[in-house]
TrEMBL record:
Catalytic activities: S-ubiquitinyl-[E2 ubiquitin-conjugating enzyme]-L-cysteine + [acceptor protein]-L-lysine = [E2 ubiquitin-conjugating enzyme]-L-cysteine + N(6)-ubiquitinyl-[acceptor protein]-L-lysine
A Pfam cross-reference name: HECT
Protein's recorded name: HECT-type E3 ubiquitin transferase
Gene3D superfamilies: Hect, E3 ligase catalytic domain (3.30.2410.10), Hect, E3 ligase catalytic domains (3.90.1750.10)
Keywords for this protein: Cytoplasm, Phosphoprotein, Repeat, Transferase, Ubl conjugation pathway
Pathway membership: Protein modification; protein ubiquitination
Organism: Florenciella parvula
């Protein structure tokens, strides 16, 4: 809890941060009779300089957490008897739990979730998946619009081959390393894990681009204002059957990501994750993707504060009961809305209608994704989770923790004390998060780290590179084995330049001289 710049009053509990705060708090015991918090850490409060307000704040926070622990002790007894399938019924206990989902500690939810995943898992056979990245690149470079037929991009090619497979395909056991074996056509790649992880990176990259018709940049991003400018929302354009199937397939792949912890590096806006878990949408959520809209509607509601009278209104506001959707389509807010002018007396009705439409414009797309999720996950339990928690399960965390990576590193024919290895870790810490993500993709075929050391399926290995002069060579990655051959560069600057070139310019997997790799190369670039 941040003790800086506080006031004498406390804001309502931020449910979204409860889980993370609790997970890092000591004495996490919610047994039947053990619910007292013994310590809450207050960040950036110097005890020697604490004033009375600081002491009051700390006491209030501790009291709140005592209350939360008592709540969770009660929930521990009650949860096994709640029918969570009734979450849509306002009178049900499930609905009440959904309203306080952010106050439920993860140590209560996760065992229930893990048990349900284990009960619904279905071990299956690994199958071959043929993907042509050249075909996808050729289509994207033609700039003829998105792949609305679902045939050309890598995600679309996977959709055509996987989507109609049995439901068991999308319910692999937790420990599954790969669901399928990737054959990158025209590339000398032999899938021992690297090409598989690379395919997931391709999916995420394509989904957040103009090459697929499923997502759009947030209005905040397009207008360079507000929060979540780097995030994406679902494309609310009218759904064809192909688009429905593509959204459903996205849900199925999200489910596989959750089950196998093969994270999809998606930057989807929090509002979409909240919709996926069935949380109620608020104006604050909408402002998180389109702040200008909320500001405009607020001004219209209170336009008299701007000096605009009822007589002046029709000369200042020349709107009808229509609005622009996120995809810039003009839509009527009610039948005949294009012919109905907004008046001073109807301005609040208009503002409410605009916000209501925008809060629900993704409903059909969300329903399709949830349908896909239900083929893989026990979606009835999602009412226990916040949108942020679902995002973490699907995507991991976007922040690349170099300390975590270094702690999971092994060395072969070199050591952590070698000068060039020290240069390497120095440069990695200086890299931006985007550069760190690109480095992971170069060396491991994925864009995000596991959540903790225990979740690493492979440890990162730094290998010696014996050729000289070292400064003339680039590093060599083995994505299947999470290995990097690192030349003994003479300075951090050269290390930085060589790594940057490699991570941004070497995306093809084209160095496997095995029979399988040669056979994949012989397939050629096009189908």
């Amino acid at each position: 809890v941040d003790g800086r710049n506080h006031t004498n009053t406390l804001e309502p509990i931020d449910a979204g941060s409860i889980g993370a705060t609790w997970d890092n708090a000591p004495n996490q015991n919610v047994g039947d009779n053990e619910y007292m918090v013994t310590e809450i850490v207050m960040k950036d409060v110097d005890e020697k300089e604490e004033d009375k307000d600081s002491v009051k704040l700390k006491t209030a926070v501790q009291a709140r957490f005592q209350l939360l622990q008592k709540l969770n002790a009660c929930l521990k007894k009650m949860l096994p008897y709640v029918d969570l399938s009734l979450v849509g019924k306002s009178w049900s206990l499930a609905a009440l739990l959904g309203q306080c989902r952010g106050l439920i500690f993860s140590l209560l939810k996760e065992p229930i979730w893990d048990h349900a995943l284990a009960d619904t898992q279905a071990p299956g056979q690994i199958f071959d998946l043929k993907l042509s990245r050249s075909r996808a690149a050729k289509f994207a470079n033609a700039q003829d619009g998105p792949d609305v037929t679902g045939r050309y991009m890598v995600f679309s090619q996977a959709f055509r081959q996987i989507n109609s497979m049995p439901t068991t395909t999308f319910r692999p056991p937790r420990e599954t390393d790969r669901v399928y074996n990737v054959i990158f056509m025209g590339e000398r790649s032999h899938d021992a894990g690297g090409p598989y992880r690379e395919s997931w990176s391709e999916y995420a990259h394509e989904l957040e681009s103009a090459s697929l018709p499923l997502m759009l940049r947030t209005p905040n991003g397009r207008h360079s204002t507000g929060q979540n400018r780097e995030r994406w929302v679902l494309n609310p354009s009218p759904l064809t059957q192909t688009k429905r199937d593509l959204f459903s397939f996205l849900g199925k792949m999200m489910g596989i990501a959750v089950r196998t912890r093969q994270f999809m590096a998606l930057n989807v806006a929090p509002m979409i994750w909240d919709l996926l878990v069935g949380a109620e949408v608020t104006g604050e959520m909408l402002a998180g993707v389109d702040e200008m809209l909320i500001q405009s509607m607020t001004k219209i509601r209170h336009i008299e504060n701007e000096g605009v009278s009822e007589e002046m209104f029709e000369y200042v506001v020349m709107e009808t009961f229509t609005t622009l959707a996120t995809d810039d389509r003009s839509v009527e807010l009610l039948p005949g809305g294009a012919q109905r002018d907004v008046t001073f007396s109807s301005r609040c009705e208009y503002a409410d209608s605009v916000e209501r439409y925008r809060m629900h414009e993704f409903d059909e797309q969300v329903a399709c994704i949830r349908e896909g999720l239900s083929r893989s996950l026990p979606t009835g339990l999602l009412s226990l989770f916040t949108g942020a928690e679902l995002e973490r399960m699907v995507c991991g965390t976007p922040d690349i923790d170099i300390d975590l990576l270094e702690s999971c590193t092994e060395y072969s024919s070199c050591s952590a004390n070698d000068q060039h290895v020290k240069f390497f870790w120095q440069v990695m810490r200086e890299f931006s998060n985007e550069e760190r993500s690109m480095f992971l993709r170069f060396t491991w075929g994925r864009s995000r780290l596991p959540l903790n050391a225990a979740s690493f399926s492979q440890r990162f290995k730094l290998l010696s590179f014996s050729r000289s002069p070292a400064d003339q060579y680039y590093p060599v990655a083995h994505t299947c084995f999470f290995q990097l051959e690192l030349p003994q560069y003479s300075s951090p600057a050269i290390m930085r330049d060589k790594l940057r070139y490699a991570i941004y310019n070497c995306t093809a997997i084209d160095g496997d001289d095995t029979g399988v790799g040669m056979a994949a190369a012989a397939m050629g670039w096009e189908e």
